């Protein structure tokens, strides 16, 4: 069966520090991968999606970046965090055979101070 | 107008009651629709897809009204375990081929009271 993991689960970072969140999927190949952010009182916002290794599409301008160095690995990064980067970050995957279902990781809760 | 709009609630409903949520969407070309459930501080999980003819899964019924551009979720005989936030999700991808245009509502918070 397929599983998705992301880490770390919780982190507190000072403004201006770097960020790296990692997500891996097991049990499937060539998944579509996504990074979402959920801020307090707001809906899930799509940040990046990837349909293959090295292929990244960005939905919104921001100081975050994403990379997909391997088929089942998706990384979210920042060189310098802002206060507004605080939120609940969710990695998700799906495949073309799905009927629109996104499978989410457990989430990473980021607080920028 | 928001792309996907939901009443944020909270809805506080006694156990055993019936509760209904509506969700409106702005893009008339939207292809597919879903309800997700999100427990507090957890990741969202698919509750059910919404089909044009309406569909039912146990105590849950989902309906789509394309003319008025809204979807609904009805929960009958509500249980304490139904307490969660319910997210309306609309796929605005024109081809319905990928999921990159899944747009989430902000969610409706439901609390079932014993």
Q: How are the secondary structure elements laid out?
A:
The complex is a heterodimer of chains A (about 110) and B (about 110).
Chain A: E1 3-7, E2 10-13, E3 19-26, E4 32-38, E5 44-52, E6 55-58, E7 64-70, E8 73-78, E9 87-94, E10 103-104, E11 108-112
Parallel strand pairs in A: 2-11
Antiparallel strand pairs in A: 1-3, 3-8, 4-5, 4-9, 5-6, 7-8, 9-10, 9-11
Chain B: E1 4-6, E2 11-14, E3 19-25, E4 32-38, E5 44-50, E6 55-57, E7 60-65, E8 70-75, E9 84-91, E10 102-104, E11 108-113
Description:
- The complex is a heterodimer of chains A (113) and B (114).
- Chain A is mainly beta.
- Chain A has no helices and eleven strands.
- In chain A, the strands form two sheets. In chain A, strands 2, 4, 5, 6, 9, 10 and 11 form a seven-stranded mixed β-sheet that branches. Chain A has a four-stranded antiparallel β-sheet with strand order 1-3-8-7, with no helix packed on it.
- In chain B, 0% of the residues lie in helices and 53% in strands.
- Chain B has strands at residues 4-6, 11-14, 19-25, 32-38, 44-50, 55-57, 60-65, 70-75, 84-91, 102-104, 108-113.
- In chain B, strands 2, 4, 5, 9, 10 and 11 form a six-stranded mixed β-sheet that branches.
- The interface between A and B is medium-sized, with 25 and 23 residues.
Treating each run of at least 4 consecutive H or I residues as one helix, how many helices of chain B?
Answer: 0
Q: Largest beta sheet of chain B, briefly?
A: 6 strands, mixed
- Please name the two chains that share the biggest interface, counting residues whose Cβ lies under 8 Å from a Cβ on the partner chain: A-B, 25 and 23 residues
Low-confidence stretches of chain A: none
Question: From the helix content, strand content and strand pairing of chain A, which structural class follows?
Answer: mainly beta
**Helicity of chain B, as a percent range:** under 10%
Helix/strand order of chain A: EEEEEEEEEEE
In angstroms, what separates the terminal alpha carbons of chain B? 37 Å
Radius of gyration over C-alpha positions of chain B, nearest whole angstrom: 14 Å
| Total strand segments of chain A | 11
Report low-confidence residues of chain B grouped into runs of 5 or more: none
Please summarize the sheet with the most strands of chain A. Answer: 7 strands, mixed
What does the radius of gyration of chain A come to? Answer: 13 Å
Average pLDDT number of chain B: 90
**N-to-C SSE series of chain B?**
EEEEEEEEEEE
């Amino acid at each position: 069966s397929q599983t998705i993991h992301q880490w770390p689960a919780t982190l507190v970072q000072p403004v201006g520090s770097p960020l790296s969140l990692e997500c891996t999927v097991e049990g499937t190949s060539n998944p579509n991968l996504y990074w979402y952010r959920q801020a307090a009182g707001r809906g899930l916002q799509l940040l990046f999606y990837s349909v293959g290794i090295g292929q990244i599409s960005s939905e919104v301008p921001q100081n975050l970046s994403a990379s997909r160095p391997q088929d089942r690995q998706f990384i979210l990064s920042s060189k310098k965090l802002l206060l507004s980067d605080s939120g609940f970050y969710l990695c998700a995957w799906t495949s073309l055979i799905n009927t629109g279902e996104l499978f989410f990781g457990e989430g990473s809760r980021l607080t920028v101070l | 107008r928001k792309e996907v709009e939901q009443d944020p609630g909270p809805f506080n409903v006694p156990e055993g009651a019936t509760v209904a949520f509506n969700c409106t969407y702005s893009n008339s070309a939207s292809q597919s629709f879903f309800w997700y459930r999100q427990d507090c501080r957890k990741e969202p999980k698919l509750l059910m897809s919404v089909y044009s003819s309406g569909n039912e899964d146990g105590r849950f019924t989902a309906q789509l009204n394309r003319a008025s551009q809204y979807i609904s979720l009805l929960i009958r005989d509500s249980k304490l375990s139904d307490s969660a936030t319910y997210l309306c999700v609309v796929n605005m991808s024109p081809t319905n081929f990928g999921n990159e245009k899944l747009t989430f509502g902000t969610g409706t918070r439901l609390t079932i009271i014993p």
